[in-house]
Design goal:
The structure holds two protein chains of two kinds.
Chain A (H helix, E strand, L loop, with lengths): L4 E3 L2 E4 L5 E6 L6 E7 L5 E8 L14 E5 L5 E5 L8 E8 L7 E2 L3 E5 L1
Parallel strand pairs in A: 2-10
Antiparallel strand pairs in A: 1-3, 3-7, 4-5, 4-8, 6-7, 8-9, 8-10
Chain B lengths: L3 E4 L2 E5 L4 E7 L4 E9 L6 E7 L4 E4 L2 E6 L4 E6 L8 E9 L8 E2 L3 E6 L1
Classes of the chains: A mainly beta, B mainly beta.
Chain lengths: ~110, ~110
C-alpha cells in the first residue's frame, strides 16, 4: 500500500478484555515499530522488529503486552486483560532497509471503559 | 537510557514570524536526530532529520541545527504560515543495538495566528 495501515482506527473495550491491534507496513519496509501516545504526551517506545532478528521488546510495559510479526510483514499488538491506563493511541511505523526515518500510520485509539 | 527534553511545550507566533523549538539529549552515543510534525488525528510525519556528522541542515523554510558538545539540537521554521500549526516532536537515536529505536521529546504545540 501507499502508507502504513492500522486497524481498527478506534476501539472501545471493557476493562479485563483482550484486544488485538493490527499494523500493515509499507511493502518492502523491513523494520516495524510500535509506540504508544497517551493524551497530551510524547511517544513511548514499545517494541521494534528488524528483519529476521529477535525483536527489541524493551519498551513493553508489562507481560500483558505482546506483539508478533508474521512473514516479515503484518504485525499484531495484543493487550491482555486491558486496564484503564492502557487507554492511548497506539502508533505503528515502518522504515526501509538502511533508513532510520519512520513512516507512521494514523494510529489506533484504544479506550478502556 | 536516552532522555530527550523539549522546550517550549507551547509556542504561539504571528504569521510570517520565525519559530524555534529546542531539544536536549542525554546519551552522547546518539547520532540521529529527526523532527516530526503531527496534525490532529494523524500520525507523526517526518519533516527533517540530521546526523551527528552534520551541524546544520536546511529544507526550504525549515532548518535544524545540532551542537554535539552541548548535546542539544533545534528546529527553526521561518516565515511561518497557519498550516504550520501542529505538534512538533524531536527525537534521538543511538547506533548499535538501538539503531532503529527513537526516544521522543514531549512535544511542542505550535500555533500560527493569521
Amino acid at each position: 500500500g501507499a502508507g502504513v495501515s492500522q486497524s481498527p482506527s478506534n476501539k472501545v473495550t471493557e476493562k479485563g478484555k483482550d484486544v488485538e491491534l493490527r499494523c500493515d507496513p509499507i511493502s518492502g519496509h523491513t523494520a516495524l515499530y510500535w509506540y504508544r501516545q497517551s493524551l497530551g504526551q510524547g511517544l513511548e517506545f514499545l517494541i521494534y522488529f528488524q528483519g529476521n532478528s529477535a525483536p527489541d521488546k524493551s519498551g513493553l510495559p508489562s507481560d500483558r503486552f505482546s506483539a508478533e510479526r508474521t512473514g516479515g510483514s503484518v504485525s499484531t499488538l495484543t493487550i491482555q486483560r486491558t486496564q484503564q491506563e492502557d487507554s492511548a493511541v497506539y502508533l505503528c511505523a515502518s522504515s526501509p532497509p538502511g533508513r532510520r526515518g519512520y513512516t507512521f500510520g494514523s494510529g489506533t485509539r484504544l479506550t478502556v471503559v | 537510557g536516552e532522555n530527550v527534553e523539549q522546550h517550549p511545550s507551547t509556542l504561539s507566533v504571528q504569521e510570517g514570524d520565525s519559530a524555534v523549538i529546542k531539544c536536549t539529549y542525554s546519551d552522547s552515543a546518539s547520532n540521529y536526530f529527526p523532527w516530526y510534525k503531527q496534525e490532529l488525528g494523524k500520525g507523526p510525519q517526518l519533516i527533517i532529520d540530521i546526523r551527528s556528522n552534520v551541524g546544520e541542515k536546511k529544507d526550504q523554510r525549515i532548518a535544524v541545527t545540532l551542537n554535539k558538545t552541548a548535546k542539544h539540537f533545534s528546529l527553526h521554521i521561518t516565515e511561518t504560515q497557519p498550516e504550520d500549526s501542529a505538534v512538533y516532536f524531536c527525537a534521538a537515536s543511538a547506533g548499535g543495538t538501538s539503531y532503529g529505536k527513537l526516544t521522543f521529546g514531549q512535544g511542542t504545540i505550535l500555533t500560527v495566528h493569521p
